[in-house]
Write a structure and sequence with these properties.
about 250 residues; globular; mainly alpha
Length: about 250
């Protein structure tokens, strides 16, 4: 808590400056609402219960996309690392597929999957896939050669080497990829809702924009930021526990 005190004080100072600028500068609330107005709008959304269904949908889309992207990314990363020839063959295509902006794929996904949760989950999974795949591939291929030679001399099977040496050694890199994926998952879910969502925090931002409700847009930004930070911290706790467990052997 003490370590975060400077950051908290900085936040309070910025909010105070923002409030003063809006009130003393005569800035229109339509352009930039003061923090007090944003807080009042946020409290109204929470108290009336309007926020919760949208938050639940975005969290569900994010969890599904993150889960699918993590499983597929981890599996493809292991496959490309364990079969070097396959890695050399497919890695350029995997990389090329990630260079296509996911936002541009949105209209195509709506044609394929229709409106609703499915295209958003697919976009989120595609965004989460790459950091997990790349970090898994990097972690598995950078295991200490001396330790691999030791396992070879002990006649460990390929599966034993993967499960007892490579994956534990690559865990810090894989978990770093998971941290990046969690942040990107929230971005993917919100962006997906911009395109084809009818419910969710991203869809609510589009609805607020249509009626020029800047306070609601900022309030939703606060909710999205809080959700992202909460999930990021949850993954950090999970990372510490997993690494601590495997460091003890």
């Amino acid at each position: 808590m003490t370590a975060r005190l400077p950051s908290l004080l900085l936040l309070l100072a910025l909010l105070a400056g923002w409030e003063a600028w809006c009130r003393l500068g005569g800035l229109s609330a339509l352009v930039l609402p003061p923090p007090s107005a944003v807080l009042a709008t946020l409290w109204s959304e929470i108290a009336t219960g309007r926020l919760w269904p949208h938050l639940a949908v975005t969290a569900t889309e994010m969890a599904l996309g993150l889960g699918i992207g993590t499983i597929v990314g981890l599996g493809v990363g292991i496959l490309l690392a364990e079969v070097p020839m396959l890695g050399r063959l497919l890695h350029p295509y995997v990389l090329a597929s990630q260079l296509v902006p996911k936002l541009a794929l949105g209209p195509l996904f709506i044609i394929w999957f229709g409106f609703g949760m499915t295209p958003t989950v697919v976009i989120t999974a595609l965004i989460c896939f790459f950091p997990l795949m790349e970090n898994t591939l990097t972690g598995l291929t950078e295991v200490d050669p001396a330790r691999r030679e030791l396992f070879r001399m002990l006649r460990a099977s390929r599966l034993q080497t993967l499960l007892r040496l490579k994956l534990p050694a690559a865990l810090p890199v894989i978990m770093a990829g998971l941290r990046v994926a969690v942040v990107l998952a929230l971005v993917g879910a919100v962006v997906g809702e911009f395109i084809g969502g009818r419910v969710g925090l991203g869809a609510s931002i589009i609805a607020a924009q249509s009626v020029m409700d800047s306070s609601l847009i900022f309030a939703l930004f606060v909710v999205i930021t809080a959700l992202g930070m909460l999930l990021y911290e949850a993954v950090r706790v999970l990372e510490r526990r997993v690494l601590h467990r495997f460091s003890k052997g």
